[in-house]
Amino acid sequence: MAKVTIKNLTKSYGTAQVLKSLNAEFQDGEFVTLLGPSGCGKTTILRLIAGFEQPTSGEIWIGDTLVSGGKTLLPPEKRDIGMVFQSYAVWPHMSVFENVAYPLRLKHTPREEINERVHRILSVVHLEQYASRLPNQLSGGQQQRVALARALLARPKLLLLDEPLSNLDAKLRESMRFEIKDLAREQGITVVYVTHDQSEAMTMSDRIFLLNNGEVQQCDTPSEIYNHPVNPFAADFLGKVSFFSGTAEKGQILLPDWEQRIPGREGDPAGPVTVGLRPENFRMEKDGQGIPGVISRMYYLGDTTDYRIRVGKAEVRVILDGASHRRFQPGDTVRLEILDRMVFAGADVQDQLKIRT
Question: pTM, whole model, 2 decimals?
Answer without folding.
Answer: 0.87
